[in-house]
């Protein structure tokens, strides 16, 4: 019986090649979208799921509020490392410090030159508690002894292979590794790399006792600064603290005790400031952009759930398309069904036959979708996480998902057409009544409702695409308050901050004829980096204090970025002792009615009274998701923050390569000054565009989803047009005989379809407005939802629908009425 089902199904599908091809394309697109999106979502939600008792592991983070504005910091004050032991309900604390962002690692070798690894990351300073909290397999050494002394380091297996490629883990023990040419460490242990998905991808683990040693004898690296052992007022994201709660402990109990500690020990809490500790679950680290996740990609749960919605909608469109086309085709199979029933076929057997056809068609679509998925992964490589690969398609979990998907799609797509067609009355269809016994009002209304749903989904996608594209244009073209074109920046090595090499390179670049101006600063005016501190101003009546974002810069910074002074003067060399140029937002916060009133006023910064020497217009310090904050420019010669050359180029001569030549000279000069370092540069406008990479990826995804949804919707509309015209063949013949023109017939057939599209728009418009309005609230500065977007959507949909329907309506209107009326 089953063999006959598949044999008959195969013959039927081959007989109706056009409908079969359209159905396969629609389902293949939907299934491939579902597969790729499932791979992405499953990948992101798998992070840190492997940790034993992971639901009891939390990171202690800081939420610091100034005048009600909350800033988030993934770190804690150093004294909490020891004070955490007084908090009850904690099974295991694990403090550690991130060593640096770009470490220079040297591996000495006997009788040969040392091997150097530049700009290394993922190096932390910890003790055995870290390995009691997180699961690692020890290949050599043990947590009990690997951190007993200073100057010890534990490596992951991959890192040991990189440093000592020809040695086994046991042979690497007691070997020497140098960090930043100043910290000589002895390898005391090797652990296996974590193979599961995790944000904790550290590979060098320096003994925490090393810090205690260098607090007495500072020698450089990252251990001689920024480590405030007794300061509860200093919070850095470098200082991390993870804890594992006891079984019966609650997060609320722990947070109450932690916040009691900060209130008791932090003596310099300012008026209007609150400092709270928050417990961040381990499984939240991969998704929470408020707190750092160690430089890894931050996933967005809203985006992931939206992706699932996109996949579901595209899959639903494919299923609706199948239903409409299959029922449209049913007129051609009416006699076949009548014959089958006459010779004894039951309705259950016919349903089984039609479902088998659907299953076979869905299997073919799934095979095609496997190939489509490969190209989709490449097409959206900028959007899809690097950890998602085509090889994931062949895991047991994915194969089970695909099988379930095939069965689900087959049932959803095939059940309704199977029931409808198997219910035809054999006497009526064999007498030539066609679908007279089956074309009930209910079935027609359902097909129309499905078409409305299709176009409502398509119109929502169109509206989303128009607004997201408009918002991206707004973000990229908005005036940021400074010049960002024709400016590039080059970050000098961290270990050269206190040497004169930075100045040597600065002089070489400044002397180049293609260069207009050069500034040494912390970063560009808009940056993802953040340096801030508390400013206080007392006007004799009230104390005004707030967190102010600092931009460390030399006197040329204003010229490079063309920041206009509204009052006061520019920074000067002698201002390294302390002076500030503030922005308009901070000027207004202080209560000054004009920029000139702020000049000469003294603000308290780090217990020192320092003057305001200038005021500049507001410039956006961060991506436009964030609101403008009080900001200030200051000049601190020799600061570790001031290591970036900001270079304004002269206008490029049309047809010349003067910019390219300038960059080539900069690279040559770089290798003269820093022969062992890699040369890297970026243009400021390109960096600003990268702020909105996620939005651009969403826009690209929506464009693709919109095109697919419109294509599938048009296929469904074509199916409904075929069905309707076949139902009204004799009516059309009679109208033509009575004198109706081709134009009138086309208008008659098209009017009902246009009504369906208008109804779909009435459903789609408020839904799209609601979600788009909420999406825009994620941006402090955004465009508006304009009426022209809705007008374009409805007009474009109607035009596309009319073009699609014309393939069938024109054919029906021009048909010879004699043929349609001959049976009468």
Estimate the strand proportion. 15-25%
Q: Summarize the biggest pleated sheet.
A: 13 strands, mixed
Helical content class: 40-55%
The overall average pLDDT, rounded, is 83
Total number of β-strand segments? 24
Report the principal-axis shape: globular
Please report the number of helical segments: 25
> Structural class per helix/strand content?
alpha+beta
Q: Residue ranges: pLDDT <50 for 5 or more in a row? A: 215-226, 434-442
End-to-end distance: 40 Å
Radius of gyration (CA) equals: 34 Å
Organism: Mucilaginibacter galii
Keywords: Cell membrane, Membrane, Transmembrane, Transmembrane helix
Subcellular location: Cell membrane
GO molecular function, one term: transmembrane transporter activity
Task: Describe the overall structure.
There is one protein chain. With 824 residues, the protein is α+β, with helices and mostly antiparallel strands. Among the domains are: 100-221, no CATH class; 487-690, no CATH class. Helices cover 48% and strands 17% of the residues. α2 (17-44) packs antiparallel against α12 (396-422).
């Amino acid at each position: 019986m089953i063999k006959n089902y598949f044999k008959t199904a195969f013959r039927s599908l081959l007989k109706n090649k056009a409908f079969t091809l359209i159905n396969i394309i629609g389902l293949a697109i939907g299934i491939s979208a579902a597969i790729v999106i499932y791979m992405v979502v499953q990948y992101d939600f798998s992070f840190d799921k492997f940790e034993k008792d992971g639901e009891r592991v939390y990171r202690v983070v800081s939420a610091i509020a100034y005048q009600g504005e909350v800033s988030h910091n993934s770190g804690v004050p150093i004294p909490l490392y020891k004070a955490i032991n007084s908090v009850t309900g904690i099974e295991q604390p694990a403090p550690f410090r991130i060593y640096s962002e770009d470490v220079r690692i040297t591996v000495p070798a006997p009788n040969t030159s040392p091997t150097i690894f530049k700009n290394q990351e993922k190096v932390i300073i910890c003790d055995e508690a870290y390995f009691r909290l997180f699961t690692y397999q020890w290949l050599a050494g043990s947590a009990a002894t690997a951190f007993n002394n200073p100057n010890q380091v534990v490596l992951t297996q991959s890192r040991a292979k990189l440093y000592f490629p020809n040695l086994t883990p046991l042979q690497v023990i007691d070997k020497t590794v140098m960090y930043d040419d100043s910290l000589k460490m002895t390898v005391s242990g090797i652990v296996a790399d974590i193979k599961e998905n995790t944000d904790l991808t550290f590979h060098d683990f320096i003994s925490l006792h090393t810090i205690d040693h260098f607090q007495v004898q500072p020698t450089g690296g990252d251990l001689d600064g920024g480590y405030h052992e007794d300061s509860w007022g200093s919070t850095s994201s470098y200082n991390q603290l993870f804890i594992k709660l006891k079984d019966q402990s609650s997060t609320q109990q722990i947070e109450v005790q932690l916040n009691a500690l900060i209130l008791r020990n932090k003596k310099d809490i300012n008026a209007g400031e609150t400092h709270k500790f928050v417990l961040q679950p381990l499984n939240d680290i991969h998704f929470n952009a408020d707190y750092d996740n160690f430089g890894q990609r931050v996933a967005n749960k809203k985006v992931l759930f939206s992706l699932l919605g996109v996949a579901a909608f595209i899959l639903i469109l494919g299923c609706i398309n199948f239903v409409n086309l299959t029922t449209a085709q049913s007129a051609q199979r009416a006699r076949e069904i009548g014959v089958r029933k006459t010779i004894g076929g039951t309705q259950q057997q016919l349903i089984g036959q039609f479902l088998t056809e659907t299953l076979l068609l869905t299997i073919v679509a799934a095979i095609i979708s496997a190939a489509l998925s490969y190209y989709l992964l490449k097409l959206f490589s900028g959007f899809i996480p690097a950890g998602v690969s085509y090889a994931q398609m062949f895991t047991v979990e994915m194969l089970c998902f695909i099988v379930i998907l095939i069965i689900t799609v087959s049932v959803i797509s095939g059940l309704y057409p199977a029931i409808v067609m198997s219910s035809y009355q054999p006497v009526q269809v064999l007498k030539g009544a066609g679908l007279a016994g089956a074309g009930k009002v209910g079935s027609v209304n359902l097909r129309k409702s499905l078409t409305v749903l299709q176009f409502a989904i398509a119109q929502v996608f169109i509206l989303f695409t128009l607004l997201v594209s408009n918002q991206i244009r707004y973000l990229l073209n908005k005036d940021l308050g400074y010049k960002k074109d024709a400016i590039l920046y080059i970050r000098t090595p961290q270990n050269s901050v206190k040497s004169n090499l930075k100045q040597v390179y600065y002089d070489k670049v400044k002397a180049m004829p293609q260069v207009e101006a050069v500034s040494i600063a912390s970063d560009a005016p808009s940056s993802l980096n953040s340096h801030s501190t508390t400013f206080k101003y007392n006007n004799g009546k009230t104390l005004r204090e707030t967190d102010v974002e600092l931009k460390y810069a030399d006197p040329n910074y204003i010229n490079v970025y063309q920041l206009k002074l509204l009052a006061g003067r520019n920074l000067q060399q002698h201002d390294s002792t302390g002076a500030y140029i503030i922005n308009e937002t901070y000027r207004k916060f202080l209560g000054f009615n004009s920029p000139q009133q702020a000049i000469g006023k003294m603000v308290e910064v780090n217990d020192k009274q320092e003057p305001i020497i200038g005021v500049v217009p507001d410039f956006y310090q961060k991506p436009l998701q964030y609101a403008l904050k009080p900001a200030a420019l200051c000049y601190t010669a020799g600061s570790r923050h001031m290591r970036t050359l900001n270079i304004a180029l002269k206008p490029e001569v049309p047809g010349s390569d003067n910019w390219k030549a300038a960059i080539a000279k900069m690279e040559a000069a770089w290798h003269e000054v820093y022969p062992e370092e890699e040369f890297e540069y970026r243009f400021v406008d390109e960096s600003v565009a990268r702020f909105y990479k996620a939005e651009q990826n969403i826009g690209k995804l929506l464009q693709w989803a919109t095109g697919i949804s419109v294509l599938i919707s048009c296929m469904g509309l074509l199916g409904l047009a075929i069905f309707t015209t076949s139902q009204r063949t004799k009516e059309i013949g009679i109208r033509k005989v009575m004198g109706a023109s081709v134009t009138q017939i086309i208008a008659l057939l098209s009017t009902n379809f246009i009504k369906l599209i208008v109804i779909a728009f009435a459903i789609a418009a408020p839904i799209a407005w609601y979600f788009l309005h909420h999406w825009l609230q994620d941006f402090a500065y955004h465009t508006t939802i304009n009426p022209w977007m809705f007008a374009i959507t409805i007009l474009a949909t109607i035009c596309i629908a009319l073009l699609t329907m014309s393939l069938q309506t024109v054919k029906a209107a021009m048909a010879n009425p004699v043929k349609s009326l001959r049976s009468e």
